[in-house]
Amino acid sequence: MSGWMERYTSKSGKKLRRIHAWNGWVVAALAVSGIVLFLPALRGATAPIRVALKQGHIWAGVASIVLLLLYLPFLGKHVKQLRAKPAQAGNLTIVLLLLVGWSVSGVVLWLERSVPPAWTSAALLAHDALTWVGVPYAIFHSATRSRWVRERRAAERAAAGDDAEAERSYLRYDGSRRRLLKAGIVAAFAVVFGPVAYRLWKRLDAQGGVAVEEIEAAPPANGQELLTPAPDSSPPIGGGAEGSFRIYTVTSIPRFDSAAWSFRIHGLVEEPISWDWPAFAKLARKVQVSDFHCVTGWSVYHATWEGIPLKELLAAAGVKPNARYVKFYSGDGVYTDALSLEQAEMDDVMVAALIDGKPIPEDLGGPVRLIVPRMYAYKSVKWLESIEIIDRDHIGYWQERGYEVDAWVPGANRA
C-alpha cells in the first residue's frame, strides 16, 4: 500500500497518505494501551490510571473506525491500482481484515454492559488473537517499509548506475538482505510472542467457537485436604466449569497457611464470630452452579461452587437493625469491596471454598473467596478473611478507581 501511495500524486493520493499515516499512529496507540491493559502483572501498577487508560483505548478504537470509514471511498480505485502488485494487494487484505476484526470485536467489548456475556467472551478471544497476530505484523510492515529502508535502497540502486551486472548484483544482494531482515523480525517476534500465542491456542476448544480451558487446580495447600467435597461437587453437577480464568491481582498473591489463617464476622452484629481453619473447614456447606463474569469480557460458565451462603453466616452472627452494608476484606491486606445488605442476602451469594469438587487454588482466590454470580467478578473478593457489617456505604478498591459500585451483569435478576 505504501509503494502505491508514493507514486500516486493526485489530491486523493495525498488524502490517502494522510489517512495511512494517522492510522499507523492510532494502531500504535491501540497496541501499547491494549497490551498494558491485558498484562496481569501490570494491573496493580496501572490501577490509578486503569479506567482512564481503558477509556483512552476505546477512543483510539473509535478513531480507527473513523479512519477506516474515511478510507472506504478510495477502496475501489486502490484495489484497481494493486491488481498487478500481488504482494501489496495481499498486504491490503491483511490490514483490512485486522482493522475490521479489531473494530467489530472492540465495539462488542465496548458494549459489555448491554450485550450477553457470551458475546463479550467470543469478542475478547477474537480481539486477543487479532492483537497477537496484528501487532507483530504491523511492526514488521513498518520496519520493511520505513523511510530509512527506502532511502537506503534508492541510494544503493543509484550507486549501481547503468552497469547491468552491478544492478543485477545489487538486486540479488538487496533481495537477500530484505529476506534476512524479515526473517530476523519474524524470529524475534516468535521468541517474544510465541509463548503467549501458544497459551492462547491451548485455550481454544477443539471443536472451535468457545475459549475453553480445564481448570488446572494446584495441589491442595497444607490444610485444604480437610475440605471433603459434597457428593454433588465431585463429579460436579454442572458438568465442570467451561471457560478460562485470567489471573488478576493488584498485589502479590497471599499464600495460605492453615496454622495462621482465621476468618471472622464483626461490626454491627449481635455476636461476632471467628473461626480457625479446622473449624471453618467443618462448617456445613451447600453446592450451587453459576456463571462467573469479568468486566474485562471473559467468562467461566456453570462452575460448581461449594461453600456457605453468605446470608447464613450473617444470620448466625445476628445483624443489628442499623446495619446497611457488608464490607469484605481480602487476605492481601489491600483489596476491599462491599455489598448492600439486600444484595448480600441474595440466595446465590456464597463464601466458597471449593470449585468443581476441588479446593479453590490460591491463584483463583483460595482457600476462601466470595462469589456474587449476578455481579461482575471484581465484587467477588478473593482470599476472603474478614466480613464487617457497617451502617454506611463503602467505596471499594476498583470503585475508587472508576468502576461502578453496582456491578450487575447484563440480564441478571436483581431481585
UniProtKB/TrEMBL annotation:
Keyword terms of this UniProt record: Membrane, Transmembrane, Transmembrane helix
Domain Oxidoreductase molybdopterin-binding: 252-398
Keyword field contains Ribonucleoprotein: no
Membrane-spanning residues: 21-42, 57-76, 88-111, 117-140, 180-201
Origin superkingdom: Bacteria
GO annotation terms (biological process): respiratory electron transport chain
GO cellular component: membrane
PANTHER family linked to this entry: OXIDOREDUCTASE MOLYBDOPTERIN-BINDING DOMAIN-CONTAINING PROTEIN, PROTEIN-METHIONINE-SULFOXIDE REDUCTASE
Protein name stated in the entry: Oxidoreductase
Natural source organism: Paenibacillus antri
Taxonomic lineage of the native organism: Bacteria, Bacillati, Bacillota, Bacilli, Bacillales
